[in-house]
Design a protein that fits this description.
The chain has about 130 residues and is mainly alpha-helical. The chain has two domains: about 1-35, no CATH class; about 40-120, no CATH class. The protein is built from six helices and three strands. Strands 1-3-2 form a three-stranded antiparallel beta sheet, sandwiched between helices. Helix 2 (about 20-35) crosses helix 5.
């Protein structure tokens, strides 16, 4: 389960999810992300600031079987999780997930194909890739 704390967060608020506003639902999911995937969110936040100082992009290469790798995979693969991370953690910078182990923050859409080619062409450190 990606967000085990979500059930408790909703129960604590005494609410029925379908009756919550969109903003309240998103707030609950974001709170659960912070509780359950804090290390990945902290890394994404740091890397977003690194992107500001590096011409707009930053990369994370992480073993997909590590705790951090699994958190990054969940965030990048889940549409709502990725959207919330982009809005609240990376300051609007897009998250791109390449293969199973690389996250790029701030890449321009026109550079996505090149990024995938470069990810495939170089030596890959993890068997899952």
């Amino acid at each position: 389960m990606s967000l085990p704390s979500l059930e408790g967060i909703l129960a604590r608020n005494g609410t029925v999810p379908a009756e919550l506003s969109r903003e309240a639902r998103e707030s609950a999911v974001l709170e659960a992300m912070r509780a359950d995937m804090g290390p990945a969110l902290e890394l994404l936040h740091r890397k977003a600031h690194e992107a500001d100082m590096n011409g707009g992009t930053a990369e994370i290469l992480e073993d997909p079987n590590s705790m951090l790798g699994k958190q990054l995979t969940r965030i990048c693969a889940g549409t709502i999780l990725r959207n919330l991370a982009e809005r609240h953690v990376t300051h609007g910078k897009p998250l791109t997930f390449l293969n199973c182990c690389k996250v790029v923050i701030g890449i321009a859409p026109e550079d996505l194909a090149l990024a995938q080619i470069e990810c495939q062409a170089g030596p890959v450190a993890y068997a899952d890739c």
